[in-house]
Amino acid sequence: MTTSMLAYLARRTPSTGASYLTRRGFASDSAPVRKVAILGAAGGIGQPLSLLMKLNPLVSRLALYDISGTPGVAADVSHINTRSEVLGFAGEEQLEKALKGADVVIIPAGVPRKPGMTRDDLFNINAGIVKSLCGAVAKYCPHALVNVISNPVNSTVPIASEVFKKAGTYDEKRLFGVTTLDVVRAKTFYAGKAKVNVADVNVPVVGGHAGVTILPLFSQATSSANLANEEIEALTKRTQDGGTEVVEAKAGKGSATLSMAYAGAIFADACLKGLNGVPDVVECSFVQSTVTDLPFFASKVRLGKNGVEEVLGLGALSDYEKQGLEALKPELKSSIEKGIKFANA
Ligand SMILES: NC(=O)C1=CN([C@@H]2O[C@H](COP(=O)(O)OP(=O)(O)OC[C@H]3O[C@@H](n4cnc5c(N)ncnc54)[C@H](O)[C@@H]3O)[C@@H](O)[C@H]2O)C=CC1
Ligand SMILES: O=C([O-])CC(=O)C(=O)O
User: Fold this and answer.
1) At the N or C end, where does the chain have fewer CB atoms within 10 A?
2) Whole-number Å distance between alpha carbons of 263 and 182
3) Which of 150, 183, 247 has most ligand 2 atoms within 8 Å of CB, for mutation?
């Protein structure tokens, strides 16, 4: 979902609703039927993400699953007069119904950080949650595209891959760690510093999704601006610490939820567009990769009818980015290995 689409949806009145799909090039009766399931839909990310996916005209059925609380969220969101039918599912016995027939499964289930914690400190709780939810995905919707938001993404994505391998359903083209929030932040911070229109800015962010493993490539930023080295270094550090900035500001009440819901909605929309055959849909994501010697790595990915169509290379890096790339590898490698070991224990 683009910012302009959100602005358009905000502007339109219910009486003009019939025309907005046509304006985007999809007549309502020709947009393919697409089911999206959100696991963890009653949470801080899950609720605004449910709202944003309800606004997306590419979705025809929205399944909201959590251990509790989803009937209320679903009843609330279902009153919005957009295309999708919304259903709430609570408790493990309803997980099958939530997942059956899903084209895209988004997973923001799990605990968030408190000040002083690293994302890896969430491993003990979230690893098990992701493992069990991915077991259900393998059973009930093995062909869905899976968008993993739950932290630590650097470990939860490898966990998901091992669960799918064991179930015999693994397709590396269909598994994504959602790193879009890093791109969203890099764009915002860069536009502010370079004093350019944020709508014209793009910045690839590669590596992983924790601290120094987050590597924004400001040398490839559009619109280009002549920032000093110290400014680039400060922007890099702010992007790497963006999550912590929010955790500290929330002072014990969780981590990024609203900006994450926005980022998650952008990424899921890109997945749906790819499935629907829209050409040239490219987003950064943490995927199985041969771009470096690490088995998983975030970089630009072209999305298509089967999920990942192409994992794009890193392009030319500045010396500072080359150093950042080497510096992130040991931590990212050990987080990936930790996930794989957990899944096979
Ligand atoms: N990838 C990224 O860029 C980001 C990731 N995150 C991560 O997203 C996760 C969720 O964050 P919040 O929504 O703020 O947390 P939250 O605590 O507000 O919500 C989590 C939800 O997950 C649900 N849940 C727990 N176990 C479940 C299970 N087995 N099945 C289904 N639902 C389950 C809870 O009931 C709760 O409603 C955290 O791990 C956080 O670190 C947060 C921000 C950015
Ligand atoms: O920082 C956190 O714990 C949540 C997160 O991943 C982010 O905001 O990037």
Assistant:
1) C
2) 9
3) 247
Assess whether 79 carries a catalytic annotation: no
Tell me what ipTM this predicted complex has. 0.99
pLDDT 10s per residue in the chain (345 long)? Answer: 444 445 434 333 333 333 333 334 344 456 899 999 999 999 999 999 999 999 999 999 999 999 999 999 999 999 999 999 999 999 999 999 999 999 999 999 999 999 999 999 999 999 999 999 999 999 999 999 999 999 999 999 999 999 999 999 999 999 999 999 999 999 999 999 999 999 999 999 999 999 999 999 999 999 889 999 999 999 999 999 999 999 999 999 999 999 999 999 999 999 999 999 999 999 999 999 999 999 999 999 999 999 999 999 999 999 999 999 999 999 999 999 999 999 999
Can you say which residues are annotated as belonging to the binding site for substrate? Answer: 113, 119, 151, 185
Q: Which structural domains are found in the chain, ordered by start?
A: 33-177 (3.40.50.720), 178-337 (3.90.110.10)
Q: Are 287 and 177 in contact (CB under 8 A)?
A: yes
155 lines ligand 1 (CB under 6 A): no
Please indicate whether residue 127, judged by its CB atom, sits closer than 6 Å to ligand 1.
no
How much distance in Å is there from the Cα of 331 to the middle of ligand 1? 23
Sign of CA dihedral 130, 135, 136, 137: positive
Q: Which of 34, 187, 209, 273 is catalytic?
A: 209
Question: What span, in angstroms and rounded, lies between the C-alpha atoms of 40 and 68?
Answer: 9
pTM of the complete model: 0.94
Return the H-helix or E-strand segment holding 8.
Answer: helix 3-11
